[in-house]
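On clarity, I found the account of how folds are encoded harder to follow than it need be. Since the whole study asks how a given chain folds, the encoding of that fold should be made plain. For the editor and my fellow referees, an illustration may be useful. An entry of this sort, consisting of the sequence and the corresponding backbone structure tokens, reads as follows:

:::
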Amino acid sequence: MAKKPTYEELEKRIQDLEKEVLNKKETEKAYRESEEKYRNILESMEEGYVEHDLNGNHVFFNDAYCKIHGYSRKELEGTSYKEISDEKTSKELLQFYNRVYKTGRSGKLFDREFIKLNGEKVYLESSVSLIVDDSGEALGFRSVIRDITEKKNAELQLKESEEIFRTTVNAMNEGLILSDKNFKPIFSNPKMFELTGYEEKDLPDLDISKFFTKKSQIKISDDLPETILAGKSSTIELQAIKKDGEIVDLLVSGSPIMKDGEFEKAVSTYFDITELKENERALRESEEKFRDIANMIPVIIFQADIDGTFQFVNKTGFNTFGYNKKDIADGELNALQMFIPEDHQKVLIDYNKVLNKRGEEVGWAEYTAIQKEGKKFPVSIRATHIEDTNGKVTGIRGVVEDISEKKKTQEIMIQS
């Protein structure tokens, strides 16, 4: 027969039970406080948090999860991720969850598209891990979801801008090179390859400095410290050597890309002016021939702007009037100075007729001219207006004949 416990033993058991009950209450209180703290943290998160069971049903989720997906808490309760996702998204999530379930390893799902209840498309990033009990048995999945729509849209806009930039650059009629701080090419557009005869495969080994003639290299060395390296843009004419050895004339415009006040990269455009330079050379040769021929003619040939300032006078003109090339170079020699004051009004009227494209009305007109030393003599002038390529009148060009001898002959004939 069992021995009855003593009073002291019963009292001790009661005290132990009271302690056990107290400890249990304190544990439950601590658990409730911990759970409350846990829920407060989850509800204050900007990221969405969700727990799914093994069938994908929503077990627990925070308000951010509702906001990110565009559903209310009531609409999500009792549903699974399959019911709020399209077929493509559901398939992606199922495959992803299966991988996490089989491996037991957490994983991330990047750039996942999701269509919200209102039709808005968002981009989500998910971190998923397996929920297990104390024995390691899988119970479900927990996920943290971030809305990366703003970041994704920025990336897409950047990509679109880069595509627009690349399309624009590739359509340019000028060559373009982006080079590093050592002037090694990083990027070149198709026109640049066309201008130089090089190919894209040559780009990594292309030394831009050796791309130009020796004379142009010296020109670049003198220009760079004062412009590009100092953070300023520059435009200069250079001669380049194509891959096949042909020399081309280029108008090169360079602009620096600075970082923290230091030269980082350079963007240069190259416009082929070979034909223009050849035309200029041909024009100079033509002008030289004109001057040579004009200087051999015994009559005066001149050219002046719309204000009457001389731009060219042949050798006969200088000899006849007593002026020299320096007088023209100074830009102070005017057509009116060649005539006596009494003829100034007539000269201005006839000059304006020529400028107004009525030169044919002037024909051969007679005036009294005056040399630098003051000697007067009669002249006959025929002039026509000069137009630029746009049809704008820029001055006059004419012929002056000293008719002193002709006048004397006429007087003799009259007297006889």
